[in-house]
């Protein structure tokens, strides 16, 4: 494995050696509260998540669907700050999984690219997913990620041309975020064949791992996507499960039921799905 693959790829390689794709879980910092979000991240690690995407709430998202948007609005209203991102990164690392941050680029710019990279590395983060930053405009981030040894994860979509796949994959380190469909995040009844087609096209131009996100909500879908993808990314289904785990009145207080039962159950089902993905049992 070349150095260009980065830290998250080492996790993915280990999972593939076990005969399965990696499970990548997304949760936003600050929902339902900062401490509640850290508890939720620890829970998904305990139930089988290999990599955790630490989501940064943003007031004007371009990729997030209604479930994640609502959680982000709650987090922002309760005063989540950029510093809390690094608390969450450290919590994920301490729990035994590999943390990456997913953030819109303006928040990184406001903190300062070098400062953000230094803080992320110091907290134990592996890298950054930037849904609204393209490689051609990422010169500062490419330099900072090289300086601090961080993964840089850009996105491709079913509409991406071969030339675009080549350019994005060449700029990525860690994995390529492979969007299964055109549109925003959200739970879908089926993922469809576009994800497998896009993974196959990526494999023609790069050996950087391809991890598929957008739409996966249960173990069967994780098994289907993971049959071809190197990693399966799940976000809205986990945030929706976390919402179900709020105690009565918890939307106001952020109180969670002991054990985070629904979130744990959904994560365990997804973890079972990725383990079935290449076993012939799915």
Strand and helix layout:
Layout: H1 6-17, E1 22-28, H2 34-46, E2 51-55, H3 66-77, H4 82-95, E3 98-102, H5 105-111, H6 113-123, E4 127-129, H7 139-148, E5 151-153, E6 155-156, H8 162-171, E7 176-179, H9 194-203, E8 210-213, H10 219-226, E9 231-234, H11 236-244, H12 250-253, H13 261-276
Parallel strand pairs: 1-2, 1-9, 2-3, 3-4, 4-5, 6-7, 7-8, 8-9
Helix pairs in contact: 2-4, 2-13, 6-7, 10-13, 11-13
What does this structure look like?
The chain has 282 residues and is an alpha/beta fold. The protein has a single domain (3-272), classed as TIM Barrel (Alpha-Beta Barrel). The protein contains 13 helices and nine strands. It has helices spanning 6-17, 34-46, 66-77, 82-95, 105-111, 113-123, 139-148, 162-171, 194-203, 219-226, 236-244, 250-253, 261-276, and strands at 22-28, 51-55, 98-102, 127-129, 151-153, 155-156, 176-179, 210-213, 231-234. A nine-stranded parallel sheet has the order 5-4-3-2-1-9-8-7-6.
